[in-house]
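Request from the bench team (R.T.):
"We need a structural guess for the complex before ordering more pyridoxal-5'-phosphate. Sequence and SMILES attached. Just send the tokens back."

Command: build protein-pyridoxal-5'-phosphate structure.
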Amino acid sequence: MIKKNLEDIIKTLKDGVTLVAVSKTKPNELIQEAYDAGQREFGENKVQEMVAKHEALPKDIKWHMIGHLQTNKVKYIASFAHLIHSVDSLKLLKEINKQANKSNRVQGVLLQFHIAKEETKFGLSLEEAEDLLNSEVYKAMKNIEIRGVMGMATFTENETQIREEFDHLHSIFDQLHSKYFKNTPTFKEISMGMSSDYQIAMEVGSTMIRVGSSIFGQRNYL
Ligand SMILES: *Cc1c(COP(=O)(O)O)cnc(C)c1O
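Reply to R.T.: structure attached below.
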């Protein structure tokens, strides 16, 4: 079942797009099943859950933190997180830099942008991101590598709206790239697209899709 779901999605992946299998709320046995089918990148949105799964499951799994991250919890994942998608403040980035330094690592992160019409979603505005990137505090960080941007579209059936929101994220990526990361080849990721909208996201230039329920089935809770 999981193997088949993965194969069906992988068939539709455009060149250069990474599939992050979102395993939040799902038990280790199901993650192991996806692993045995060849999947290595998994996404979680809760720190404790990601730590427990990292401890229990094969060590070559690349763990992506895709959920809102509280500053006081960074220390639990800083030794192993592959990519943190949800950086939405300088304060959080400072703490990630500090904890990554303690682990002797350079932590890959994405800047999360608020592109949806919904108030509830987290993320920076372009202006806030530019303030962050222009700050001396950021410029002094040695243990952070900003690899791109992340965003979530509005939860709606309106495909035109979803496409516009993803387009907006792409244009934010382009603006940051030309202004701050022109000579930084590692700034290349646009993390957008979930089960309901990853096809649209890939058409609009996503490089990383985060798919949960289409692989593991519906979740009973968030
Ligand atoms: C849960 C979640 C996903 C995956 O959602 P599905 O609809 O199950 O594919 C993707 N991104 C984030 C940030 C999530 O929290």
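Two things stood out. The first helix runs from residue 2 to 12. The first strand starts at residue 18 and ends at 22.
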